[in-house]
Each structure stands twice: as C-alpha cells, then as structure tokens.
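Support case: user asked for a sample of complex input and structure output to validate their parser. Sending the pair below.
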Amino acid sequence: MAAIYRRGHLTVGVDQTTPLLSYLDPATGRIDGFNVAIARQVAKAIFGTENAIKFVAITSAERKSVILGRKVDLIADPTTIVCDRLAWADFSTAYLVAHQRVLVPSASDVRGIGDLGGQKVCAAAGTTSIYEIAVQRSHPIPVGVPNWSDCLALLQQGQVAAISTTDTVLAGLSTQDPQTKVVGPRFTYEPQGLGMPKNAKDLVRFVNAVLEQLRTDGEWKRLYARYIGTRIQPRIPDPPLPIYCETSCRD
Amino acid sequence: MPRLSLAALREALKPTPARLTAGMLVTIAASLLWGVAATFTVVDRLSAANDMVATTGPLSLYAQRIYQSLSDADATEAAAFLAVTEPPAARAEFHADIERAGTYLQEVTAADPPAAARSDLTTLQTELPEYTLLIGEAKADSAEGLPVGASYLQEASYLMRGRILPAADDLYRRENARLASSYGKATGFPVIAVIVAALCSILLLRVQRWLASRTRRTLNRGLAAASLVGALSLTWLLVSFFVASTSLTAAHDHGTAAAQPLVQAEITALRAHADESLTLINRSGDDANEADFRLAEQQLGPGRETLLSKAKAAGIGSPGYRRATAAGSAATAWYAVHRAVRKLDDRSDYPDAVYLAIGSGAAGSRAVIGKQEALLTAQSGPGHPATSAAAFAAVETDLTRGIDADYALFTASASRGDGALGGVAIAMVIASLLMAAGCAWGLTQRIAEYR
C-alpha cells in the first residue's frame, strides 16, 4: 500500500475488448467500463482522484503472469474467484455476480449449450469459461483465443458456432453486433472479484472497504445502471453480499 | 561395292589428287564446324544476356517490389490503427501499396513463371483479397467505435505475416535464383567454342604443313587467308565476350547482388516498424511483438554480421553504398526513439508513448513528451527525429533510394553488356563462310595442277 501511495498512481490490469465492463473506446483512445469504474473508485479512495490510475491491457491468459510478476497492483479483468486462483492471487469480495450462457448469431436455432455438441464454441484462453465448455455433457469443441473480441470476429466469420462465457461479457460482445443473441439457461454461478498479489493483505482489506462503501452509499447501483443497465436483467440488481472468509471461492 | 575399312581408305587416298580433295573437304568442314560452334555460343549468351535485361532482371525487381509493398501495407495499417482516426495520407499509402503489389503480381504471373513459383503466386492471389477484406472490416468496426476491429486487424496481420509475406519472400528468392542462373550462363568461359577453335586451327595448320612439304610453294594463300579469318573471328568472339562479361558482372555485383542485403534490410525494418505499433495496440507492455522488434534490430544492425553491415560490404563500389552507410546511423537514431517509446509505455504513460511513436493521437502531457525529447536531443544531438515513425521513415528512405540506385545501375550495365554481343553472331557466320571459301579456293588450285 505504502509503495503504491509513494508512486502516486494505481496500476491496474484490464481487458480492453469487452464493452460494458472494460474496453478501449477506439473513438477516444480511453479505457472505460463497469470494472474500470470500480478500479477508479479504488484509486479515488487512495489518492483523492480517480485519474491517479494507469492501465495495463492484458488478455485473460496473462492475468496470472502480471500478478506474479507484480506488473500491476490489481486486476479488474472479469475474474471469477475460484480456488485454483487463490494459489497465485488474493481476491476482494465479489463486486459482480455473473452466469455463463451462450451467444449465437440471430439466425441460429441453437437454444443453449446443450445444442452445441460437436460444434466449435469460442472462449478466451485461461478462463473458467473455456473449462466449462470442455466439461459440458453435450461435448462442444472449445476454441481458445487471446481476447474476447477475437471470439466475436470468429463468430462473424462463421468459424465458430457460438461464444460461451458470462452473461456480462456476452452482453458487451452483443452490443457490437445486433445480429447476435444470448440464449439458453445460466449454467454457472460466478462471483467476480478484483485480484491482487499474494501477501498484500493491507491492500485487500482496503479494497474491500472501498467496495463496502460503494455497496452502502448507492454508488455501486449508479455505476451498474450507467454501464450495464438493463441489458442483462430487467431490473438493476442489488450489489452482491460480501463474504470475507477464505473459502469464498468455488471449485 | 568397295569395302569400308581404314585400309581401303588409305588405299583410296594414295594418289595425291585424292589426298588434296580429302584435305579440301576436311578443311571446309572444319570451317563450317567453327561457324556453327561460334554462332551457337554467341546466340546462347545473347539469349541469357537478353534474359537478364528483359526477363529475369525485371522479374527480380518486381518480386522485390511485391514483397516491399506488402510489408509497407502491413506496417502502414498498424500505425494508422494506432492513430485512432486514420490519417488520409496513411489511407492513400495503404491503397497505393496494395495496388502496386497487385500490378507487379500480374506482371510476374504473365511472365510464365516456373512451376515452383506458381504456388507462391497462387497463395498471393488468393490471400491478398482476404487480407484487404479483413482490413476493411477492422476499419469499419473501429470507425463505429467497436473494439472488435482490433481483432480483425490482428487476424489480418497474422495472415500477412504468416502466409502472404513468406510467399512473397519465397517468390523473391526464386526470381533472384533465376537471375543468378541467367547471369551464370551469360558470363561463363566459352569452353566448347575454344575447344572447337583449337581443333580447327590444329587441322588447318597440319594441312598447310603437309601441303608445304609436297609442293615448292611454302604458302597456300587460300588456307592462309582462312587461318587468318579464323584467328580474327576467335579474337572478336573472345573480346566481345570479355566486354559483355565485364558489364554484366558489374550489373550483378554492383546492381542486384548489392541490392539484395538492402532489400532484406528494408523488409526487416518494416517488420520492426509494424511490431512497434502492434505492441502499442496490444497495450500489454513488452510482448511478443516487442521481442520481435529486438530480434529485427539485431538482424538489421548496424553491427558486425548484420544486414546493414552486409549491405555495406556487398555495396563497395555500388551507388547504394552511401545509402547503406546513412541507413546505419538513421537506424541507430530510430532505436533510441523506440527505447523512449517503450520507456513511456512501460511506465504506463500510454498516450505519451503513442504520441512519441506516431506523432498524432492525444498526448497525455506535453511535459512528459518535452522531457523525452530533451533526453533524445542529449543522446543523438539536435535535429533528431521527433517521432519513432519519422525516425523509421529516414531509415526507409535511405534503403529505398539505395535499392533503386542499385537496380538502375543493374539495368544500365546489363543493357551495355547485352549490346556488346550485338552483331557478333552474324560476324561468326560470315567468317566461317569466308574460311570455307578460302579453303576451297586454295586447294582447288592445287588439285587443278594434276589435270
């Protein structure tokens, strides 16, 4: 914490290809989104201004290496808190809960992950999503790519039949292409947190306090309404309840 | 029916007139054989020299232009993408690159390429439209503010670097090999012609000595004239070959061979330039693209055993030499700006890094840029290039001008060499006919004395 304060800015690893959550706006060259806004709130709590922040764009597969290499103070890439990852990172309490579903072209008659047996389904490499695709009983063929937008490019070119990941990421991808739709049941439960290097307990505690503040003062709901709105569910949801114990991950 | 045997032949040639007739026929045959051998040798060389001037030389240049245009398109597009709104100049350059590559591709295809080069051409013809399609999609998406545009650009770049450029590289190598083979044919020592000339002169001399021993006249004018014409025609052939070889060797050594490392250097510089943009587009710090930049820097030099030092070594006495030397110092200045860009990016001063790289886009802070510029001035003196793109452009200009100058020398020298062989073939035909006539005249007079 002290090192961050002395440096004068927070360094945050983010995805730059998922609209709504964290994306590079080609028109302004700025990185923005719900996850980014949460990270900016942490910077604001430390430095008094949310602009005391620098971003390092990472792919999902690079999350582990930037944390272990201490290239960033925290990652705000959509990251599900799972036990595996506790080996190399500590997580804040969940700031968003998402569920894995399926994105297909509007013309497709696929109605969920169960209809995708033997077909190619895209997800970013190094994510829980690609693991989930691989273990489905319908046996889809997982296709791993560096960035989420790479999946959309493959879907648009007809090289994969579907994209499957959390509804939050899918909603962001579908804003880029009206010729797509999100279908099927939610088949996972994914609490997402900010990841930090191990042995930075003071930072974890500080971030948790910031998140608690956002939950209670209504800022969380305002940010959710601003960036995600009603694209996933008809009502703005309540913030996820914090669970502080070490077992707040899922297998 | 006389028996055909050596003994029978000896018997038949015992009377002197029969011997004289045989001698005449043999010397006429030798004259004509020299004519045929000399003419064929000259025609063969002339066609190889013509190939250098009209076919393999230009094709090597076209293949180089294809390779260069496509590399430039890739680098231009990556830099334009980084600039958020594509500068009109970049758009024009990209289209000019693709068009130029297409035009030269048609030229090479129309020139009836060998089977081995055809698969490269097929790859280029099928993948190039696919590439422009992906670039079009990338631009359309980015214009609408959709991040998926970056994915299309990445895919386009993979296609360019993974399939299109290797095919263009292979094509260039093949065309260069064809040029080297016509160069070899056009400048080798005329072994067969010289052997035939030696045999013919031995024969002519022996017939003359025999004749001198049989008659009181020591000189047979006809045969002597034939020998003289023969010697003159051989001299003409060797001198014209020597003159042609000198020009063709200059065309090769100071033209295409000197240009080759410059071409490799330019392609490598373009690759590194694209790498810099792609690293910034990916925004993930020192990634695989930056590693490739460092590799390209090592290959390019200037240092020992690098492309630029090879270009200098191969370019001694070539017009491109001065350019290769200038490119060396320009490259060093470019690397310094690139380091500054990477330093800014590694400190996460992203907008400043982009600004220092391409000189457009919104710089985060003029103060940071000013500090970096002051640092660069301290390192490489005043008048250093203000952006990495400008520093790269200086390197590229030097290399392009060097390549163009070398190819211009090639064309001029090869044409001169080709010209030196003009008229030699017809001279050989006339010479051999004169020789045959001389032999016939000289010996008919002796035969007539026996009637």
